[in-house]
Design a protein that fits this description.
CATH architecture of the largest domain: 2-Layer Sandwich
Helix content: 40-55%
Structural class: alpha+beta
Low-confidence stretches: 281-296, 550-576
CATH topology of the largest domain: BirA Bifunctional Protein, domain 2
Number of domains: 4
Mean pLDDT: 89
Largest sheet: 5 strands, antiparallel
Strand order of the largest sheet: 1-3-5-4-2
Distance between the termini: 47 Å
Number of helices: 22
Order of helices and strands: EHEHEHEEHHHHEEEHHHHHHHHHHHHHHH
Number of strands: 8
Length: 576
């Protein structure tokens, strides 16, 4: 249940006309009163003899009883309360009870206080009500409604329990502003997936990913097709900006602009500047990745490899206790996801876009980010953007799977950190992002793991036994589990590749396993494959590697078959 305290108003009659009217887009159905300060209050929605003016005069009576000089200029209080989409449709009686609880909790009409404010609750849709009140009490004093938003949220959590509704997490004031009902209905009418506010927020976030200067930021906004209006001081200094979609216009056919701060708290111009100003001293323009420099840009696969390394370093930071550094890493992780979604191939784009959209909430909290510590991640995001779109095949596609696999660990670690800090909304958002990332991984990885799987199956028996010995030497506590996983063949091929490249397979595997817990991995083998290929600097696309040739003599019947211990083969057969 989502309560929202709106800005104070000056005209009671104006709000009543809206609540009882058809709505901006004819979305109001059967407007009527469900509860009020007095059971005899007139209802212009159901009583043909009652008028809006009748209800307005009664609501305003305590205000008008004051001397004109003592009347508050803004005296109209407005609260909307909306149920979650999956909640059952509540009855008028249930909404009436919810309204009474809300006005009591917020200080409008405390329970047992006969001198509270006058109020009325209007329902014009199945899923929500609006409560209008005048803030002058019957005794002439003004209501004590400080922190009314926070108190309405606290009461909503209790109502969810009492009515068996979806239990939402309490907000902390760092979330982006939700679209209004009018914005949602407009988007639905136009057949759009998201409202202009949401579309702009996503576009601006992508434009800010890895950005190194104001000019680059505004160039990206323009390249994305947004209309831009900059607010400039008389001195010529840039104070702020606002953006609009070219096809989003009002009744006068004028573009509807949104300032960065109204899209999200971290998209105001000062907050955008924080991203690159803290890195200015050590963040010289990288001519290898900056298209404007005229030099060759980094390839998508190289950008993804660099990003995987940067993400791994960020995961290690999250294991530490410096909250300011962790907050900076999480903010920059949002830029990695935005850049990855922007440059992803078609078969992973949808899930990566949803992951970036969800993690946006997890990238902000009241913990102040110590910018500058996020330099590596921000440079990685910049490389991804300037590297351009990946095709999803060959090395590009394989390194995408490698990066997504590592980002899952970062996002999961973010969820754990937010959970320890009791950031409920952020923790839930990070877990939601992790779910989308796992789906993206399942779209990106199988074709590349299948190549390694087949190469592992074609290893000769002596080579297979050799890789099994390396496994048992490096991770004896995990060896038996890994040998039963389907991904073992891909891991065996990767160990052979690492040895061919001059590495000690057992030592490399032990290091890979120690670098981070594996309890949250869906497949330990898959995780170790990508870690090893990154650490050993092996091509992520194993089809580019030469086949391993064994000179050992073996029976024809068993040649080309991967060797497992007999008990593992038996276990595998029984499980089929």
């Amino acid at each position: 249940m989502i309560p929202r305290v709106h800005d104070m108003g000056t005209r009671t009659i104006g709000l009543l006309y809206y609540l009882y009217g058809p709505g901006t887009h004819e979305e109001h159905i059967d407007p009527h009163l469900v509860a009020a300060w007095d059971s005899l209050a007139p209802d212009p929605g159901r009583d043909p003899k009652a008028t809006y003016g009748d209800l307005q005069r009664l609501l305003d009576q305590p205000v008008m009883a004051l001397p004109a000089s003592a009347r508050p200029t803004e005296h109209v209080w407005h609260l909307s309360v909306r149920a979650a989409p999956e909640d059952p449709v509540l009855t008028d009686e249930q909404w009436a009870d919810i309204a009474r609880r809300m006005v009591a909790a917020t200080g409008i009409a405390p329970e047992g206080d006969g001198a509270g404010c006058r109020w009325a609750a209007v329902r014009h849709a199945d899923d929500h009500i609006h409560i209008i009140a005048t803030v002058v009490r019957e005794d002439g004093r003004q209501a004590r409604i400080r922190q009314d938003g926070k108190r309405s949220q606290e009461e909503a959590r209790k109502i969810e329990v009492d009515y068996g509704l979806r239990r939402l997490n309490t907000g902390d004031g760092t979330a982006a502003k939700r679209p209004t009902s009018a914005e949602r209905h407009k988007a639905e009418r136009q057949g759009k997936e998201r409202t202009p506010r949401e579309e702009l927020r996503e576009t601006v976030r992508r434009a800010a990913a890895g950005v190194a200067s104001e000019q680059e930021f505004f160039d990206r906004l323009a390249a994305a097709g947004l209309l831009i209006h900059q607010r400039v001081a008389p001195s010529g200094d840039l104070l702020g900006y606002k953006v609009a979609l070219a096809d989003d216009r009002n009744e006068d056919q004028e573009p509807i602009y949104y300032s960065g701060s109204t899209l999200a708290p971290d998209l105001s111009l000062p907050r955008i500047r924080e991203r690159f100003s803290a890195n200015a001293s050590g963040h010289d323009r990288d001519t290898a990745t900056d298209r404007s420099s005229g030099s060759a840009r980094v390839s998508p696969s190289t950008a993804r490899r660099k990003a995987t390394t940067a993400v791994w370093q960020a995961v290690l930071v999250l294991d530490q206790d410096d909250d300011g550094q962790i907050a900076a890493q999480l903010a920059a992780a949002g830029e990695i996801l935005d850049a990855l979604a922007k440059t992803s191939a078609a078969h992973t784009r949808s899930e990566l876009r949803e992951a970036a959209w969800a993690f946006e909430r997890a990238s902000r909290s009241h913990v102040r980010a110590e910018r500058g510590h996020d330099r590596a991640l921000r440079q990685a995001a910049r490389d991804l953007v300037h590297g351009g779109p990946a095709l999803g095949r060959g090395e590009d596609g394989a390194t995408t799977a490698m990066l997504v696999d590592m980002v899952i660990f970062l996002v999961t670690a973010a969820a754990h950190w937010h959970g320890k800090k009791e950031h409920a909304q952020q923790a839930a958002a990070a877990l939601q992002a992790a779910g989308h990332l796992r789906a993206a991984y399942q779209s990106a990885a199988p074709m590349h793991l299948a190549v390694m799987h087949q190469r592992g199956r074609r290893l000769s028996q002596p080579l297979q036994r050799k890789q099994t010995a390396y496994l048992r030497q490096a991770v004896p506590e995990l060896a038996e589990q890994i040998l039963t996983e389907q991904g073992w063949y891909a891991l065996a091929a990767t160990l052979a590749d690492a040895e061919s490249a001059g590495h000690d397979p057992a030592a490399l595997l032990a290091e890979a396993a120690e670098r981070r817990e594996l309890d949250t991995a869906g497949s330990i083998s898959d995780v170790l494959v990508w870690r090893l290929r990154r650490m050993a600097d092996l091509p992520a696309d194993a089809s580019a590697m030469p086949e391993h040739i064994s000179t050992a003599t073996e029976p024809t019947a068993t040649r080309g078959t991967a060797q497992r211990p007999t008990k593992d083969i038996d276990r595998s057969r029984k499980s089929r």
